[in-house]
Amino acid sequence: MATRKTSSEDLLAPVTLAVGQEDLLLDRAVREVVTAARAADADTDVRDLTPDQLQPGSLAELTSPSLFSERKVLVVRNAQDLTADTVKEIKAYLDAPAEEICLVLLHAGGAKGKGLLDAARKVGAREVACPKTTKPAERLTFVRQEFRTLGRSATPEACQALVDSIGSDLRELASAVAQLTSDVDGAIDEAVVGRYYTGRAEASSFTVADRAVEGRAAEALEALRWSLSTGVAPVLITSALAQGVRAIGKLSSARGGRPADLARELGMPPWKIDRVRQQMRGWTPDGVSVALRAVAEADAGVKGGGDDPEYALEKAVVTIARAARMRRA
Description:
By secondary structure, the chain is of the alpha/beta class.
């Protein structure tokens, strides 16, 4: 069959391919298609399916014409985990998609299930990128875009403060942006963010990590206990600790240079380079090794490898703070 060209703006395309592992973006890709379909037909039937619900033969039944010719949206999650027989059926369907049906395939990307990815792309599926945001700079870009999407602007300092306060969860960042744009009529600056999220900033996982890598054990423990009491997930704290220690290790082994040059070399924003330079005083290579082992042990402890996640985190924080003072000792 000849390849079909589908506009990325055509939300009612026969096939939409959402590729990536960022849950918020995947859910948004689905919601956009469903919203467009229900705008065209309020009675649109939406089926949200997982691989175990889509057995061989199910697709033919779901895509068969209905008595009332109603519009359908079929959402297939984790398409990379579909069985070989089901993938074969979907590939055959892609060559002759049914009218009034929007098929949305959510795929993690990567090598697993790549044949289905290739087949969908070959027929011109509308594709939406949903990459996992792993870098602070990416989260900062996300926040800026959220403000623009909602028709508002925020100062660079406000955006940075929001990322520092909320952390890495895109859903929470999006919710915070929506709250600020709804509640604040004037300029959204760092002071506004501080008024809304000061308590959270003080209790964030990144505050715990910052105090620990600076060797300030008492303050790190205080921030840790406050974080846990306000519901911050232990895994977010271990993640922040890992990022903090790795940043120390990366910068300590890097060649000297301007923040902008180091930022490109290490994949960090320039502001992060300046902060880590201040934090790395007192660190030694042995200290970094000790701290990384402590983070690994804490990570195992909060993920079921220990009886007391809070104790595992406290032990890691104290160990990291001591490691930060090795050179001074």
